[in-house]
Structure formats: C-alpha cells, structure tokens
Write a structure and sequence with these properties.
- It is a single chain.
- With 260 residues, the chain is of the alpha/beta class.
- The chain is built from 12 helices and 10 strands.
- The longest helix is centred in the middle third of the chain and has 23 residues, at 80-102.
- It is globular.
C-alpha cells in the first residue's frame, strides 16, 4: 500500500496507508520512554485521525516503550512541587491517551515490536488486539522503582488476566516473554520477527470498522464499580503519593546508576 500521508513530531511518527493510521512512538534512543511531548503527539494524532478503518500503535527501534522516562522524574526529584507537577502531567496525559484509544470508532491494534515496561502497558491494554513480536517481553518495574502502578495495570490488566495474577505480577516484578503472555491470555497473537505487517494486514482484511466501538461500549457497560476514567484517576493519585518519597528517589538513583 502506498503512503497517503506521513508526519513526524520528533517523538511520534504517523502515516496513513490504505486507510490505516500507523502511530509510531519515536524515541528509540530512550526506548520510546513516555514524556509529555510524546503523549501530547499521540493525542493529537488520534484526535485528527479522521475517517480511518483502523489504528496501529507500535514503537520505533528495538522497544515498544519503556514506560515513564525515569531520568525525567529523577531530574525533578529534588523539587517536590516540580516533581508532582511533572508526574501529574505524564500520568494524566497517558490516561487521556488510553481513554481516547478506547473511544476510537475503529479497531485498535497494538503491534508490540519489543519490550514494554511500566505505564506504557496501558497503550497495549487499550487496544482491541495485541500482537507481540516473539522476542518481546513485558515487565512492571514498579516494585523495583517504588512507583505506584499506572497506565491501567490495576484498571485494565485484571480484566485480561485476573486480579490475583495481576497482584502477584506487580509485587514480584516478573518478566513475561511473548509466549508466556499468550498462555495467560494477555496478548492475542505471537508474531515471528519480521512478520508483523503481514499479520496486521491479515487481521484487518474485510472488517466493519464501526463494530469495534459498539462492542467496547457494550462490554464496558457490564463492568461493575467505577468507570475506567475513575479507575485510572485512582492510579494517578497513588502514583503522585509515592513518587515524591525519599525511598523512591533512592531507587531512581540506583536504577539510573545501573543503566550507565
């Protein structure tokens, strides 16, 4: 398919091919870590998508996304107000992206091309279908960092794999590879490296795009308790409560020292 339109903000690349919006997280030098500019660009791309028959979300380079950029949090850790303001913006905008993906009037596919950690898991949990490269993995990292789970780890993950499994995964910071994620029902397909585009084309062949939104609305109506926006907001409040702790700052220092 030839490209009908392609743009880049420096943090996100978008292109439309054959009526499919491809949204690529484009900070490969930082593992596509989430920062406000990247999340704002995602929102803009989704809000201006127009009449597309599907959205595909993926990452540039070797990673899908490494979650929030720890270096950006640590850079503000000595100024409590600056840290809280930045954290509010990152987690709040991530929540808006998740909610926007859930209201797209067409199927949303997460093409997980590489590792996904932390809050970026919400970008795949918001999708209707999750395809994962055979070499990719998922890991929370919250117990290691001292952050509270965000990005839908408690708001969306239990719907896919259950409450007990989610709690254990978060507490013990396990790393799941693609086939393990498939076995527990977290993802929908494992794709051999190099085969992602062909699998996306096969999945999107003759579909009615509008059924995706109708199905989401009907299914969401069956969930008891607070709506998704409320559950995500609760995650954000817990994240803000923990991010400014001295222990969390020490964990960020240790993490960044080990990454050098």
């Amino acid at each position: 398919m030839s490209a009908a339109a392609a743009t880049s903000t420096g943090t996100v690349r978008t292109e439309v091919r054959g009526g499919v919006l491809r949204l690529v997280l484009d900070r490969p030098h930082r593992g596509n870590a989430l920062i406000p500019d990247l999340l704002d660009a995602c929102l803009d791309a989704l809000d201006t998508a127009g009449d597309v028959r599907a959205v595909v979300l993926t990452g540039a380079g070797r990673a899908f996304s490494s979650g929030g950029d720890v270096g950006e949090f640590r850079a503000r850790a000595d100024d409590r107000e600056a840290l809280l303001a930045y954290s509010e913006r990152v987690v709040g905008t991530l929540n808006r992206v998740i909610l926007r993906l859930r209201t797209m009037p067409c199927p949303v596919i997460a093409a997980v091309n590489g590792p996904v950690t932390g809050g970026s898991v919400g970008l795949m949990l918001a999708a209707d279908m999750i395809l994962m490269d055979a070499a990719a993995f998922i890991q929370p990292y919250y117990a290691r960092m001292g952050f509270a789970p965000d990005g839908g780890w408690t708001a969306l993950m239990p719907e896919r794999i259950g409450r007990a499994r989610t709690a254990r995964w978060l507490a013990f910071d396990e790393r799941l590879d693609a086939r393990e994620a498939l076995a527990i029902g977290l993802i929908d397909r494992v794709v051999e490296t190099g085969g992602m585009d062909a699998e996306i084309d096969r999945q999107l062949a003759p579909l009615d795009p509008g059924l995706a939104l109708t199905s989401r609305r009907l299914l969401d109506a069956q969930i008891a308790g607070p709506d998704l926006a409320g559950r995500l907001d609760h995650e954000k409040r817990e994240f803000l409560d923990r991010i400014a702790r001295e222990d969390t700052r020490a964990r960020m220092n240790a993490f960044l020292a080990g990454a050098k």
